[in-house]
Amino acid sequence: MRRAYLLRLWMGRNRRITMHFFCEQCKKEYPVATHSFQCECGGLFRLYQSAMDAKDVHDGVTLGEMPTPLLPRMMDGQRFYFKMEDRQPTGSFKDRGAKRLIGELAHIGIDKVALDTAGNAGAAVAAAGIACRVYVPDDVAAERVKQIAAYGADIVRVPNGRAHTMAMAQEELGDAYYASHIYNPLFIDGVKSMAYEIYDQLGGTVPDYIFVPIGNGTMLLGLYQGFEEIGRLPHFVGVQSTKCAPVVDAFHGFPRTPYRHTIAETIRVEEPPRMEAILWALRSSQGDAIAVEDGAILTAAKALGERGIYAELTAAAALAGARAFFAEGMPDNYRVIVPIPGSGLKR
To answer: Which of 30, 67, 89, 169 lies most in the core, judged by the most C-beta atoms within 10 Å?
Structure first.
């Protein structure tokens, strides 16, 4: 009997704790297959995975995603490195997250999803080959909606902005899994591959600064997670439009200002659900948050085009932020990354 007891004890101590979600507030655990998109206490999910889980990523789904170039270009006498995520199959970095999320769902037998999007996430998930219903704000660019529909998704247009679109998608889930790039930490886990690529492309060094356009914070949180695993953080600088800058207001303690329409529509998010995580990533990296005028975004878009980069206006916002931040000059040895999240063809 003692041998049986010792065997059970050994098995308990050495059992593999499988990948799962846990609440960032109360720590309650949920299986990855859960149809809940947040904890019953209201907290958002984070991902637990062991080192074995991290190596055992399910690659049954692919969009044809690839490592993207890190393109050096001179502007204002300063060198910036552009991470060309517009080269991904659907034209945005969201392909990284969709591959990770939908690959895991396919592995556990989930075959129907729903999500809300301003365009890029919807296209990436639809292209991953899973039945999906995609909710989009009714003022999103027609090119974005046309692309999502081309991959076979059912489109639901929703009036009154991003927040209302998200609420409707959550209310009408039914038996569909909520494949949100915001709420589901598997999506963010997929985006972290960008950090590893940048690290390798810079010869095994971490950049000094990364200027990240912020809407819901998916790119920032993925990059933060990747560089945290590498062991050193760059300074993250979040960039938003002055017409919709809730992260900038919260970071600096500014009074909340009325939000208006901005040309950088994919970062037009008034209340990011992961605001606390966004602020943590910026502050713990000793970074910053800045807002730029729409006019500066258009100027930056023109400068990108003149250097052979046709980017969506979200990318131009990041460049506008970097130029403003280093308006008084940049040390020659700084390595400054400006991601190009999506293609200008999506306008």
So the answer is: 169
